[in-house]
Structures are given as structure tokens and as C-alpha cells.
Sequence to fold (302 residues):
Amino acid sequence: MSDPVRELREDVVSGASELIVRGARVLRDHAEGNRAKTRRAFTASLAKVGLMVADAQPAMAPFIHLADAALKASDAAPDLAAARVRAVETVDGFVAAAAEDRERTARAAARLVRNESVVMVYSRSSTVEKALLLAAKEGRRFTVLCPEARPNMEGRILARKLAEAGIQVTAFVDAAAFSVFPTADLVLLGADALVPVGLINKVGTSGLALLATGAGVPVYCVAGRLKMLPSASLIDPHREGEHLADVWGECPRGVRVMDRYYDLTQLDAIKGYVVGEAVLGPGELRSRLRSIRLHPALRRKK
Fold:
């Protein structure tokens, strides 16, 4: 495994919007330096590396869309030389388009934050972070409840960023969320992937969504179109065994450590999904997910 891909695999703190820039660089470098002699070989190689990058962050949908865009651009080119050029240009454009999608989604999510609101967040979504910063910039005053998100404490990174912007933040250990939650009137969650069977995000998301639903507090998922996939078979959110030391590095004999980083939240547990400038209900989201068509080389991924 190349060093950039290994670094992607080992990063369990950064959000998908940040990681996609690094993944795009890997795919771009491969497309530009690829020495395939035929279109077929170039496509096969591009798909292989695209899936390798996606496998480095197996729960994050944008990597699948990155490979899909490059492959479709290559297929549309008239010859091998043009395929190489178009793949590189498409990867470059994808990063810019992803940033624009994040910006539109964050602006729409910012409108959900009312003055004097108390907003519960979880983990560290860069799009949620952007939405909260925009809401504050627009003059609204509110409080953010921010669990630290063990074991890698990315919630602390989010809390620091928001506090530096003058937003009032209350940070606490994850287990305290049940005690702190009654003061919240809004929950904003990020997403690593949206698939027909549910929302995939940092483990603990499902429990927080169920807690909010039971309390009648609205939960919105701030995602964007690049988090949407037509099937859960394209990703592997349940992979374990790679980050055991983060949980308990020297556990005693007889103790099994589970280092699963993601869980699945039923789509109906979320009131709305912020995708670009729209806020979709669960039913409309399912329809959009099922209408997505990916390149055949990616649909074969098991």
C-alpha cells in the first residue's frame, strides 16, 4: 500500500470533506502517470486505484463518487491520450465541485440554527462546522453541546474551532450526552455515507438519534450529494481490528476489544437531510439514492 493511501487509512479524525482532497491527489497522480497501453488497461487500472483509495476510508461515500467521475470521463474520451487528460481534469474539477457542494449544504444547514438555540453535535463534520460558523457570522447567538467523541477526541477539535469563532460551546465526555441532552432543541449530524438502509456515521450516532427522536427534538443530517450511494454494498463500515490501540492498547487477556468506528442509523430516525440547498425527508432521500447510477467497474465492488 502506498504511503498516501496508508495515511488515509490511518486518519480517523478528519472529516470526509478534508480527506477527499488527499484521496483525489492519489487518483490524479495515478491517472497522470499511468503507463497503460490500451483504453481497457487504463480503465481497469483507474478503477483499481479508485477502489483502493475508497477502501482506505471504507465508510465514506465521496471516494466512490470520485472514482466514478474519473471513470465516466475516461470512457467519454475518444482515445487513450484524451482519456488520461480527461480523468486528470475531472479529478481536479471534482475537488472544486465537492467544495461548492459543501458550501451550499452548509448555508442551508445554517438556516436551521435559530437565535438562542442549543445545538447538539457529534464527532467532527467539517460541513456541520461550516454551518455553525456561518450561523454565527450571520449574527445568531447560540450554544453548541459538543461530546468529545472518543477514542480520538475529534469533538474537542470541533469545540476549539467553534470557541475560537466566539461561539459558546459546552464540551463533555460522550456518556454525559444523556444528562446534557434535555437542554438541546436541535441536533445536527454529519454523515460518512447515506444509503437506502440508513445513515452511516461515527459510532454513537444511532443512539443519539434515537434519544432525540424519543425526546421530540428535531435531528437533521448535514450531508451533501456526494455522501449519497445507491447501495450499502459499495462500502464497508463494519471493518474492525485496525485501531485496537486507540481503544485499549494493553488490554488484559480474555478481553475482546471492539474498535468499530461507524454505526447505522435508520433513515426515518432523521427529520431531514440537508443536500445542497434542499432539505429532504427520508422518503425523498430514498428515491434519490435509488436513482444513482455508478460506473459498472464500481458496481462490481463487493
User: Anything to note?
Assistant: The mean pLDDT is 91. The radius of gyration is 20 Å. Residues 105-290 form a domain with the Rossmann fold fold (CATH 3.40.50.10470).
